[in-house]
Each structure stands twice: as C-alpha cells, then as structure tokens.
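Training component of the fellowship. As part of building independent skills, the fellow (R.M.) carried out the full modelling exercise for a liganded target. The chosen ligand was zinc ion. The inputs are recorded below so that the supervisory panel can assess the work.
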Amino acid sequence: MIKKAVFVVFDGLCDRPLKEFGGKTPLEHAKTPNLDAIAKRSQCGLMHPLGFGKKPGSDVSHLNILGYPYDQYYTGRGPIEVAGLGIKLQDGDVAFRGNFGSVDGNWNILDRRCGRIKDVTEFAAAIDGLEIDDIKLIVKPGTAYRAGVVLRGKGLSAAISDCDPHEEGKPVMTVKPTDNTKQAAFTAAVLNKFLRKTNEILNAMATNKQRVKDGLVPANFLLVRGAGVVPTMQPFHEKFGMRAACIAGGGLYKGIGSFLGMDVLSVPGATGMPDTDVAAKCNAVVKSLESYDFVFCHIKASDSLGEDGNHVGKKEFIEKADKAMAILAKLPDDVLLVITADHTTPCELKTHSADPVTILFCNPSCRIDDVQEIGERAFAKGGLGRIDGKDVMTQIMNLMGKLHLVGA
Ligand code: ZN
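Fellow's submitted model of the complex:
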C-alpha cells in the first residue's frame, strides 16, 4: 500500500533526436543505469503537460501537473515569484516582479538593474510598508537587484500595464489600466503615485547620494512588471490530504512550492545550476519523508542547458543526475516515486516545445510494463500510454487509493 509520494521534475528534460547523437535524444544517449533500472520497475508513458499542442511555460506547467489547473490558477508570474521570497500572500493582493533600477531626473532609464547591484535589502526596507489611498506597498528584496512587490488593499486589479520599458535610455512608462474597470483605473493611479513617492524616498537616501559620488548609478526606481492578482487557493495539504515539502534550487520553483502552501526546505548545494548537488537534494528528499507525505523535488539545469543549445552539457548533466538517482531507487515499498519533466526543451530550438515528456510511476503496486530504459521512444511504448498534465495528480491519488468513488 502506497502511503507517500516523491515527485521529481527534471526541468526541460526531454528533447528531439540529434544527429550528433546518432539520432538519439540527450536522455536516450546519456548513460543512465539508475534511471533505466527505475524505469524497468515502473509504469511508463508520455505526458502532455498542458494538453496536446500547447507549449508550456515552466510556471504554468508546474501548477498544472501539481493538480492546479493553469486556466484557473495562473494569473501571472508575479504572484509565484513573490511567494518564493517569503511574502505571505492574501486573496486579492496584486503581485509584481520588480527590479531596482536607475533613472535620471526625467525618469529615463540609466540602468534597469542598477549596475547589477548585489543587494537591495536597504532600499527595499526604505519603501516597504508605504501607504497611499488605503493601499499598502510591500517590497521584499530578491536576489541581487530583484525585488518582490505587492499592492494590498481593497478594490485592486491586475489589469494594468508594466512601467518597465525593458530598455535603457527609454523613459519609464506610465502605468495604464488595460481594461475599462474602475478597479484597473484605481490600481494604475495608485501604482503611479507609489512610483513617484518611492523615487523621492530612494533619491534622498544617503547610500544613493554616496553611490552617485562614487560614480555609481543610484538605486532610485522600482521597476515593476507582470502584475498578477493572487487567486483563491486551497493549499496542497488540504486539497490532497498530504503534508507537502518542496526541494528546489531555482527561485521560481521555490515560489511554486510556497504558492501551493508547501514547506520549502533549503538544501545546501542546491543551486539550480549545472553545478547543483543533486545527491544532496535526493538525500534531503529521503530525510523529509520522515515528516512529509509528498515531496516535490525540482532539478533545473537540464532545461538551462537545452536553452543554451548545449546538447553535450545536457547529456552530461543527465548522467550526473542519474548517479544521484541511485538514492531514490532505494525508496521503501510504501513510497511512490514519480519522475517526469515540465516540458521538452529541444537543443535545436533553444526554447520549450509542445512535444510530450516522459513520465514514470515506480512502485511494486503500479502496473509495471515492459519498458527497459528511460527515453522518449522507449516510453512511447509504455503501459500508461499518453496522459495529460492535469491527470498526473489524479493518477498519484489513484495509486494511493485516495480517489472518491464515482457512482455507488
Ligand atoms: Zn521548465
């Protein structure tokens, strides 16, 4: 009887055949004895993360395969990134991705990333908590020049434009409503007031005056983009009745875990880069099963290397990750191991594609099939056939005996 589940997502794992690899994909060409052994003990198949013919973004795909239909719960990347910075979001908040940038006296952009400043904690603290027209501005520092930004209060809307022109030398754009509602007009107006006020406060800071004296650009503007209203969410542990943990290196994926109400565990050496310590993450997965019923583990670099078109690097990273999979191959019989990807990232395209991804369900209780190795073509013959991303959690719940009876 399956009591717990480990859900491993290799970002952008799958690919297309490459002539450099004799017509094999990086996953097929890589030496993966551990993943092959796991596949032999699994029910295997292919999965369309958002459904056939849809090219998934990572954020949208993760929501969908973790059981939160993207058309219902995805309202932009802002709320997810902000959740990853530890801001407890409330229903009705409008969240943005932010950068501390530099502008001149006419609000022309001098530097969108403020000279790639390393830390913006002091600047974020100086403007965090400001209130205008009964709306509160929440600003938390992210990595380097980045920040999470939230507007909190009544009558807000995410139907507003960005202020970030995404180009240096151009002026900051006035935020405008993008629909005809009162809420959108109000939100745009209040955000413009905040941008003016924060610019004044930041310009007056001694640290910024010193930066200018030192020939550096000041951190004097909060550039915001990607407004999203925080949807009403049922936390993962309530929706699926499982205490859940998230183990990830990349900020967006910690954000996904936090957004869904999972406990985000920090693992030293988990960098979200090719140098990440996959074994440390797998050991953390095993340890966390003592306290959690569901552990989501995200591995990023397979996607980044695909987006670089680095097929050799992608293959080598898969081989490195495979060594660590020896740890997950020894999970006890009451733990279901699911290994999949959030989308395909073909090296030839250097971006995501709508091709389906491999998925396996490993446990003695699964209807194990004849697949002998991991790979896109091997899994096309798997016993699971093809499923949609929205059905992944359904299958996990089915295998755990947690589905409700349809009918009597
Ligand atoms: Zn992805």
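The panel noted the following from the submitted structure. The radius of gyration is 23 Å. Residues 82-228 form one domain.
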